[in-house]
Amino acid sequence: MTGIDVVYACAGLGALCAAILPTALAKRPLSLPMVFLAAGFLVFLLPLDALPDLDPVRNRGLVEHLTEVCVVVALMGAGLAINRPPGLRAWSTTWRLLGLAMPLTILLTAAAAAWLLDWPPAVALLIAAALAPTDPVLAAEVRVGEPTDEKDDEDEVRFGLTSEAGLNDGLAFPFVLAAIALTTASATGWSSEGLWHWAWSDVLLRSTVGVVVGIGVGRLLGWMFFQAGWKALRLSEHREGFVALAATFTAYGLTELLHGYGFLAVFITACTIRGAERAHRYHRVMHAFTDQIERLLTAVVLFLVGGYLASGGLAALTWRGAALALVLLLLIRPVVGWISQLRGRAVGRERAAIAVFGIRGIGSFFYLAYALGEADFAAPAKELWAVVTFAVLVSVLLHGVTATPVTARLDDRAQEPSPDPEPR
């Protein structure tokens, strides 16, 4: 038996499972990520010499780029799926989660990391920033479905969680860069000039580039797909789903070349294309293609994460690191998520569901890999990986088990007829 034989067998079985399991698990308290985590764990327990080395410290670059591709494909799919046109009031749940919940989550998680683990500020901020964004990849059970013709057919829970995950993957980047700058400044000394550079360049300028490029690429491609006079450019008539990948990598690559936030640009590109001809069925074609690619990539990443766990990936985890992950998932996110929505569009059980289902996932792996490649942090890399992996593991298990029954209950309540008004 050779290594390539094992790869072929696992790839074939994984692709079959990625096609079968979403339907098979649709009404069960089980998720696709849980299955692939378990599969990777079991396979890497087998006494096979051909299995690859899954140490993320030694293979940091591979982890960074694999998770990067997975996230950008998921962001395109999420943007294409959202039916609700962007607006201040229509997206108020999103703005609350981004403007209030995410910064507060980062602040409280960093404080908890400094207190529990006695980490210096740069390390505490890094772990908080890496774990801050919710994940568009692992949230299939609580995301909006395929594109439809109706602008208002999305419930607030699925819409809020999808739009939040689509934008906060990009908006967490300034905080990761702040952690990198902070650990660099610990040797050279921090100055007000460095703070100004972060606020101007890393927050304002790079975010603006991401938004502008996203809108520009989205409008250009939307015109090309639906309105171009030359039939060869009017790709909506060709019904080629892989064009969604062209849009994804064009927006991402161009934005990164201009030193903007590519994650932000990809999601905005998708939303802009969606708005170019909102009722056209071509959106379903592109969304279906990205969904298939996303599932394959998710299967690969989660299988490898399961293998990493079986190979001793949590050996460096201390009880304090585990406590940090649990505090984030069970206390900080639910409380902050609830408070941020007070007097918002979501009410009652909707507000609770949005607050609780802050799923952590593949984006956290990307941010940690990226940061560790940019600077040396005053904490063992293996411990940082163990904390992030444990947080993702708990999130996959906790949210994977509860997502289906919770969303089913919310759907049942939404379909219940309103009580008749009492006669006067």
Could you describe the 3D structure shown?
The protein is mainly α. It is built from 15 helices and no strands. It has helices at residues 3-24, 32-43, 60-81, 92-117, 121-131, 156-171, 173-188, 192-226, 243-257, 262-276, 282-310, 319-340, 348-356, 362-374, 381-415. The N and C termini lie far apart (81 Å).
Task: Give the topology.
Elements: H1 3-24, H2 32-43, H3 60-81, H4 92-117, H5 121-131, H6 156-171, H7 173-188, H8 192-226, H9 243-257, H10 262-276, H11 282-310, H12 319-340, H13 348-356, H14 362-374, H15 381-415
Q: Low-confidence spans: pLDDT under 50, at least 5 residues? A: 418-424
**End-to-end distance:** 81 Å
What is the helix content? over 70%
CATH architectural group: Up-down Bundle
Number of helices: 15
Instruction: Tell how many strands the DSSP assignment holds.
Output: 0
Largest sheet: none
Please give the CATH class: Mainly Alpha
Overall mean pLDDT stands at 86
Choose one word for the global shape.
globular
User: Strand-and-helix sequence, N→C?
Assistant: HHHHHHHHHHHHHHH
Q: Work out the count of structural domains.
A: 1
- Named CATH topology: Na+/H+ antiporter like fold
- Counting helices, strands and paired strands, the structural category is mainly alpha
Report the radius of gyration as a whole number of Å: 21 Å
Q: What amount of the residues lies in strands?
A: under 5%
Could you give a short description of this structure?
The protein has helices at 3-24, 32-43, 60-81, 92-117, 121-131, 156-171, 173-188, 192-226, 243-257, 262-276, 282-310, 319-340, 348-356, 362-374, 381-415.
